[in-house]
Amino acid sequence: MEAVNIVIDGKNIKARKGSTILEAALENGIDIPHLCYHQHLTSAGVCRMCGVKVKIGDRWLNKTGHAPNTMHVSACTTEVGEGMEIVSDDEELNRSRKLILEFLLAQHKHDCMVCESNGVCELQKYIYQFGIDPKNLRFPGPEYTETVDESSEVIIRDANKCICCGRCVRACHEVSVQKVLNFYGRGGVDDSLPKIGIIAGFDQPLGETDCASCGACIQVCPTGALTEKLSRFQGRSWEFKKVQTTCPYCGVGCQLELSIKDGKLVKASAVEDGPDNQGNICVKGRFGLDYVHHKDRLTTPLIKRNGKFEEATWDQALDLVSSKFRDIKEKYGSDALAGLSSAKCSNEENYLFQKLIRTCFGTNNVDHCARLCHASTVAGLARAFGSGAMTNSIRDFENADVVLITGSNTTEGHPVIGAHLKHLVTCNGLKLIVVDPREIELVKYADIWLRQKNGTDVAWINGMMNVIINEGLYDKEFVESRVEDFDKLENMVAKYTPQKVASITGIPAEKLVAAARLYAKAESGSIIFAMGITQHTTGTDNVLSLANLAMLTGNLGREGTGVNPLRGQSNVQGACDMGALPNVYPGYQKVDDARTREKFQKAWSAELPSQPGLTVVEIMNAAGKGDVKGLYIMGENPMLSDPNLNHVEQAIKNLDFLVVQDVFLTETAQMADVVLPGATSFEKDGTFTNTGRRVQRFRKAVPLAGDSKEDWDILCNLSRKMGHAIDCSSPAGVMEEIASLTPSYGGVHYDRLDGDGLQWPCPTRDHPGTPYLHKDKFARPNGKGLMTAIEYRPPAELPDKEYPMVLSTGRLLQHFHTGSLSRRSMALDRIVKEGYLELNPTDAARLQVADSGWLKVSSRRGDIQVKAKVTDRVAEGSVFLPFHFAEAAANRLTNDALDPVAKIPEFKVSAVKVEKA
Amino acid sequence: MEGVMTSRSGVLESLRAEGVKSISPDCSKITVGMATCGIAQGARGIFAAIEEEVAASKLDIAVESTACIGFCQVEPIVEVYLPGKSRTLYQQMTPDKSRELVAATARGEVKKEWALCTVEGTAEGIPAMKEIPFYKKQLKVVTRNCGFISPRSIAEYIARDGYLALSKALGMKSDEVIDEMSHSGLRGRGGAGFPTGKKWSFARNAPGDQKYVICNGDEGDPGAYMDRAVMEGDPFAVLEGLTIAAYAIGSSQGFLYTREEYPLAREMMDNAIESAKKYGLLGKNILGSGFDFDVRITKGAGSFVCGEETALIASIEGKLPNPLPRPPYPAISGLFGKPTVINNVETLATVPQIIRNGADWFSSMGTESTKGTKIFSLVGKINNNGLVEVPMGISLREIVFDIGGGIPKGRKFKAVQSGGPSGGLIPEECLDTPVDYEHLEALGAIMGSGGMIVADDKTCMVDMTKFFFDFLNYESCGKCAPCREGIRQAHDILEDICSGEGKEEDLETLGELAHTVKDFSLCALGGTAPNSLLTTLRYFKDEYYAHIKDKRCPAGVCKKLITYHVDPEKCSGCRVCIKVCPQGAISGELKKVHLIDQEKCIKCGACLEACKLDAIIVE
To answer: How far away is chain B from the Cα of A790, in angstroms, using its nearest Cα?
Structure first.
């Protein structure tokens, strides 16, 4: 840290260079009063409470430079300078601060008795600290006539309590970048001009604006002007037990602070110094956690008898489960059994699950839904770089000059990363290239938007490389020293001229050229992608192509670069890391490598199968054919998440025995023979590994629901009943075992996880973790990156006469995966109740259907009915359907054609027919 | 290089010849003062009458318009030029008088009885400009062309040495231009008085390819119109100054920000920009020097705070015009985050003269700390309303009494408000103070942009302070707490005092409040807002006490504290007051003493104005 020497109130301080006086003070334990300052917002200097006197040499610093008066500088906006002497605490300053507080109090409705901010209100804190007696107020307040705005499902705005500090406006512009809140009017009170205040939208009720309900405004409001609606009267600040945990939804791994009262989760806020969320969370993280106490929670084991579930004891249930699985194993062999692990469960539980399947079941038939989202990422990046994860860190995009983002609707799928990108574009000058068939929100922030036809990704990526090579924009030194097979790539992409690419992808040649130049010329260029790239029969090819592009331009192994897949679920990275995959043990150690297998046999005291097992879709296919007879599913819902659901349904019905362990009776659980009630992440301890390879704790905050058990506990109990006991006393103990067997987790121990967690690879106890991969060499055995020449192949199913439109599926901001959690959140359900089909206005006109009109959508595999949402977001001839909604299940329509390498299905391109219902 | 110089002087020389001819043609010429002040007094009708008369009689007389020559009190002003004889100003003209004047001009005669003074040559019985009290102590530097040339004519501007400065500057290194400015001692005329050369050198040395210059024409003080007059009267000088500033700091794009309420000024500036472009004095490769510079006009939407630099920048950027904390200063990070110089109109209009005549010439005028001259708009209870340009260091008394001609109706001087609503009220005992930044500040006032409002003994100091707080309350952007809330609370307390509801402790609260608003506000609006309050508390505390303790308004202004009575000694019973009273509050028979019904009286003062016998008493 470069230091600047300053003196505050006689105390010598080495301040961080570039910090403000206020930051320097706060970092050194001096609390200069402040109301409008917030650590994650630009300083506005508007409350003026932090006014200080500053002297440099003999000269007093003041704002006009030549001292017409004694106007003090605000500590929050003034950068520290060498030799500054600062007076922050004297009688004169404090007298004025007191007066400012009196001004603010006069305008503030202080109904502290019932105010949700009582106890955490910063105005209240200073009013008390400065000893302002409400009995002796010198300034009369106004009539509190502002209507309280309760139009939002989650936020209450009470302008009578607003002190116009503008933190919410800045949060809305800088943190969530929704730009819904704004200042309005000015200081004067006059009939012709409104008094200054903060408005939503065009002075509309908040609920009628584009508000994303993220609650960033609540997080920063110093008073009770912005409060939560649903937790109102559920507890006061000092009654809460605070527990820090990791958000259970997407893969960003936001750190949450839970407020618990009487064993009940009342509300959540963002941890200000959460390493990857930095004080931000989305609507799901803040308002979508109440499913934990939902009445539908499974609270006791269930056994299906005569087609009906009956409550059972744990012994009854586990006895039945173990005996049935043992029977099948004895009768049909180990490979007639299979298990689906869970990207929503902890690392420890995934570890235990795959260990159970491999030791007790004796099969490698273990997989989980990563197969359906990023199997091609793992396969592709492992081939190109030797490691199949995000190369850089989540906050590392701030070091990039250009970000190319493709196949990721980031602001909905990974809202906190999406907001950060919007922030970087609007506040930091980041250049953004978006390649997406849909006009997603980020397109508004993009310098260049390439709208490719669905499933033509290899072509445009090859086209960009064609331009980059032809124009000599590639990183010759990097290519020479760190990469193999450049010549093959060079030869192959030569024919992908921008004109040819235009004919395949529909991207105008000049736009492709511009994008190629922008990315290639960046000092640091980063690539972000998600399922728009991976969920194709060419998923692995797509990922390899992006890897080629990054290697070609030398955008790897440095800050602000990389190839960065965004993983979809809280622990989908961890579930892969833990070996809940048919071909690898924890840490991607191959099951068909004899020495590795020996290591695990020894550690687990069991014979282990030597051949890789079946993947998710293969398991379903095998079940359909009768090859797999017994299936154990932990925390997954293939009856919504898998492609071609009608086929999945047939397969599951064909099973002899199905066990589902979950927290709700999901669509899949309803088909089970035995249902085991597991625990949510709020009811147990464990770790998740986020998309940035960061292993973070989640913590038990509330008691278990009814007779339910922690999933790790269930697994241990079942293993005992299966005759191969896996002993574990705690998740922390399991992590010790993981560390001992998994090189990349070798240094991960619970006692090291309380701060910012650890980013793998972290091989040893004293290793600090790895913010970005492939610094000097790649993780492949010879240390070189591998370029792969890849030809474009069209998607498996293209529109034709009968099914003339292209369907793509994906996520909404407010819901998650199969909706089993998010649709049981009161707030999220109120905000978005039902699914819809996005349909271009031209197509809507042709079908003579209006917004919200009913449609029938059919494919070769099934049909559904759903309401129309007429929007330009989708191109003519294309439709989009979110997959969260069982009543309009997108996967009744999707194609289960697989990528040959990664076995990922082609969710993103299906041919469908759309009719008026 | 020589070729470039030749082409430069070529353009200027031919325009100069044209301008000389147009200022002093071979025929007679009548020029009407048609700035906003003249138009408001009926100059358009006069211009029409003169044109009509000249056309009807087919006279060989040129008819022209010019802008404000400063003496607004005697508008409409008409100038008559008789070749080889004189150039004479006529005051308070009417269309009828103008027709007669045309006839006299045709005869080559002057009309002594309507004349104000001669500007050039002599005429018997008419004093020269330098001899009449209003102009005697003035020193026209910035306003040297205002009222003397046609503001639409680039040729006339050049004829009076216009664009010599730019031509000279383009032959200098930009550093030399800045050095010249620094040596001149010119300080910003917008209010804060920051040294102009220093500001330019900050922007020049700030890193960045793109830099901007902005002319701040957002003159918002009530009663102040110096900048308007300069833009209307000498727009090319402003533009030339802006161009020199751009050259000095290395900017290729300038902005001119004017108030929405200044359409004529905008028209003149617009015309100036177009003319300058036409002759290669603006745009690409100015005067063949390789220097490119363009200017765009931005119109404000009616907010006082936009005169503040950072708010003005936000306004140009299309953002909410709220000031930003400084640093960073605009010279380092201003418009669109680029180094930006903002100078006010008067400052920029001074620049060409400094370059042309040299820094030493400029710094020979004024005081030790404040060089040059300053334009003040002298308004309020004063005999000679108008714009006056005086050398720095002149005393307030000279401005008010010698130039301004003292207080009308034989009333007593009470105070002069220097610096507009943000300024302070200066009492009689301080009138001998020399005018410069430091002395005015020591009195608790400011130079500001040059507004001077004179108050007589019938002006209530508490009420006047309340007026300023009313204005500032309305104009505070509301962003920062001390300004937004402090001004509002001060206003409410002042209103209480004026209503007779003041308490003694209010004075202490007001004092504390004023200091907090001054010391803690974000920008200069709040930082100077309490000046009127602080100075009236300092110099006129008695008036506050009278309102609070005795429930009395000594000036007889605060309606809730006064009553109107009829003086039975003086009342002749003429019924005039009865006729004008809008409330029917006065009764009485002809030739008998009248009576005011206190229940009905709204203290509008109509009777007071109407009574010729001073029989209405205010208590």
So the answer is: 44
pLDDT digits (tens, 9 = 90+) for A45-98: 999 999 999 888 877 776 444 443 467 889 999 999 999 999 999 998 999 999
Using CB atoms and an 8 Å cut-off, which of residues 814-853 of chain A contact chain B? Answer: none
* List of chain B residues whose C-beta atoms are within 8 Å of the C-beta of residue A196: 477-479, 484
Compute the nearest-CA separation of B518 from chain A (Å): 6
Measure in Å the smallest separation between the Cα of A580 and chain B Cα atoms.
52
Tell the residue number behind the tokens 């509050």, with chain if given: B585
Would you state the pLDDT for residue A356? Answer: 96
Is the domain of A595 the same as that of A522? no
Pairing verdict, β A862-870 and A836-839: parallel
Are B524 and A64 in contact (CB < 8 Å)? yes
Answer yes or no: do B325 and A107 touch at CB < 8 A: no
Buried b (16+ CB within 10 A) or exposed e, A300-317: bbbbeeeeebeebebeeb
For residue A186, what is the nearest residue in chain B, using CA coordinates? B477
How far is B155 from chain A, CA to nearest CA, in Å? 40
Burial class (CB in 10 A: 0-12, 13-18, 19+), B113: exposed
> What pairing do the DSSP bridges indicate for beta strands A694-698 and A758-759?
antiparallel
- Give the pLDDT confidence of A141-182 residue by residue, as tens digits: 777 778 899 999 999 999 999 999 999 999 999 999 999 999
Q: What is the CATH number of the domain that holds A36?
A: 3.10.20.740
Close Cβ partners of B81 (under 8 Å, ≥ 6 residues apart): B24, B25, B28, B29, B30, B31, B87, B120
Separation of alpha carbons A873 and B187, rounded Å: 56
Residue B296, strand partner residues = B255
Give the pTM: 0.91
Which chain A residue has the Cα nearest residue B484? A187
- The pLDDT tens digits of the residues spanning A648-701 come to 899 999 999 999 999 999 999 999 999 999 999 999 999 999 999 999 999 999
State whether residue A104 sits within 8 Å of chain B by CB: yes
Which structural domains are found in chain B, ordered by start?
23-130 (3.40.30.10), 154-362 (3.40.50.11540), 373-456 (3.10.20.600), 461-548 (1.20.1440.230), 563-618 (3.30.70.20)
Q: Cα separation of B427 and B422, whole Å?
A: 16
Distance, CA of B468 to CA of B192 (rounded, Å) = 19
- Show residues of chain B in contact with A73, CB under 8 Å: 325
Owning domain of residue A37: 3-89
The answer to whether the Cβ–Cβ distance between A100 and B520 falls below 8 Å is: yes
Q: Are B181 and B196 in contact (CB under 8 A)?
A: yes
CB A437 within 8 A of CB A454: yes
Window 172-211 of A: residues touching B by CB (8 A cutoff) are 182-183, 185-190, 193, 195-196
Say if CB A428 and CB A401 are below 8 A apart. Answer: no
Q: Are residues A587 and A719 in the same domain?
A: yes
- Interface probe, candidates A20, A21, A62, A63, chain B, greatest B C-beta count within 10 A: A63
Q: How many CB atoms lie within 10 A of CB A271?
A: 18
* Separation between Cα atoms, residue B75 and residue B34, nearest integer Å: 10
Return the pLDDT at A324.
Answer: 96
* Same domain (yes/no): A544, A575: no
Task: Say whether residue A45 is in contact with chain B using an 8 A CB cutoff.
Answer: yes
Whole-number pLDDT of residue A886: 84
Q: What is the mean pLDDT of chain B?
A: 92
- Total domains, chain A: 4
Instruction: Say if A614 falls within a structural domain.
Output: yes
What is the nearest CA distance from A614 to chain B, expressed in angstroms?
58
Nearest by CB to B476, which of A70, A138, A188? A188
Q: Report the CATH number that the domain containing residue A719 is assigned in CATH.
A: 3.40.50.740
ipTM of the complex: 0.89
